[in-house]
Amino acid sequence: MTATALRVGATSFKLRRRPLLVVAGSLVVLATLLVADIMIGDFPLTAVQVVDTVLGGGSRRDQFVVFELRMPRALTGLLVGGALGLSGAIFQAIVRNPLASPDILGVTWGAGAGAVSVITFAGSLGVVTGSAASIGVPLAGLLGGLVAGLLVYALAWRKGIEGFRMVLVGIGITAVAGNFTHYLLTVGDVQDAGRAMVWITGSLNGRGWEHVVPVAVALAVLIPVALIGGHVLGALQFGDETTRGLGIRVNLARSFLIVVAIVLASIATAAAGPITFVALATPQIALRLAGTAQPPLFGSVVLGGVLVVLSDLVARTIYRIELPVGVVTAVLGAPYLMYLLVRSRREARV
């Protein structure tokens, strides 16, 4: 693989051509998908109209349709996909298991349990009212994801984090949070259950700038942090002893990166609901395209955005009524999960 060394002060980086080409190509695809996503709707626009409006032109109607109605939704999908892709790449690099993702480790279902709690108690039960009810769903989703992720981390800790144990604990937390969520669906009335089901399926419908900003801020802060920690993820592939020999405090670095991954997944889920399988599949797709030893972090961010925006485009056009984007990612991701399970079983036999 062709690589070029880049030195900035006392720090040096190795730039490999193939991962860079994957990122460049993915950015082109992502830009094309964003334009296509903004074009479609009750007031169809051409690609030229979309580009002209984004660059400052267009009529007042076009500006309203692009900036107020469609761009927030497209950007929410892009950012949520990027956050989920990065979260999944960090989890899989630390746990060294392609099955490790916020979906499997309980973060997503924890967020779902938190959000459905507010929907139920703010609905027919009327326990949560006022502003707490209006802003409570994304906030409760964020808190639920954080609580579930930190609980998995605490229960899996035995003088350090071991990947297989963390996956098993995560599956247990997923089961508990999932059953609690299903119980909540039986407590409220039919309308509450319907709202809750739409949320836990994962949807970009009705997303505005208030959903874009939190995820954008989180990514602006956490992407550089994750990229700086990328050398730790690379060292962890050689085992804990080798990593300690390189002068890295293994448990501290691993714990910090896991918290970063939990926060990313929780914020993404709070913005759009639990869009499943993106965090699971994106890092492995990026790894195979880039030909690297571990999931590339920035490549996973871009491909995560591509997957969610593409899925949203399909969800809006494949049927006469709009489907939640989580339905499309689940249809794409379920066969991929079965493929991973079959491949893991074959590798275990070898």
What does this structure look like?
This is Iron ABC transporter. It is a single chain. This protein has one domain: ABC transporter involved in vitamin B12 uptake, BtuC. It is 75% helix and 3% strand. It has helices at residues 17-39, 47-54, 60-95, 107-122, 131-156, 163-187, 190-201, 209-228, 230-236, 240-245, 250-272, 278-290, 297-317, 325-349; strands spanning 3-8, 11-16.
In short:
The chain is mostly helical. The chain has helices at residues 17-39, 47-54, 60-95, 107-122, 131-156, 163-187, 190-201, 209-228, 230-236, 240-245, 250-272, 278-290, 297-317, 325-349; strands spanning 3-8, 11-16.
- What is the global morphology? globular
- Quaternary structure: single chain
Please trace the helix and strand order, writing H or E for each element. Answer: EEHHHHHHHHHHHHHH
**What is the CATH superfamily?**
ABC transporter involved in vitamin B12 uptake, BtuC
Record field, number of beta strands: 2
N- to C-terminal distance: 28 Å
- In round numbers, the mean pLDDT is 83
Biggest β-sheet strands, sense, barrel:
2 strands, antiparallel
Instruction: Bin the helical content.
Output: over 70%
Class inferred from helices and paired strands:
mainly alpha
Number of helices: 14
Uncertain segments of ≥5 residues (pLDDT<50)? none
GO molecular function, one term: transmembrane transporter activity
Membrane topology: Multi-pass membrane protein
Subcellular location: Cell membrane
Transmembrane segments: 20-40, 74-95, 107-129, 135-155, 167-185, 212-236, 256-277, 297-314, 321-342
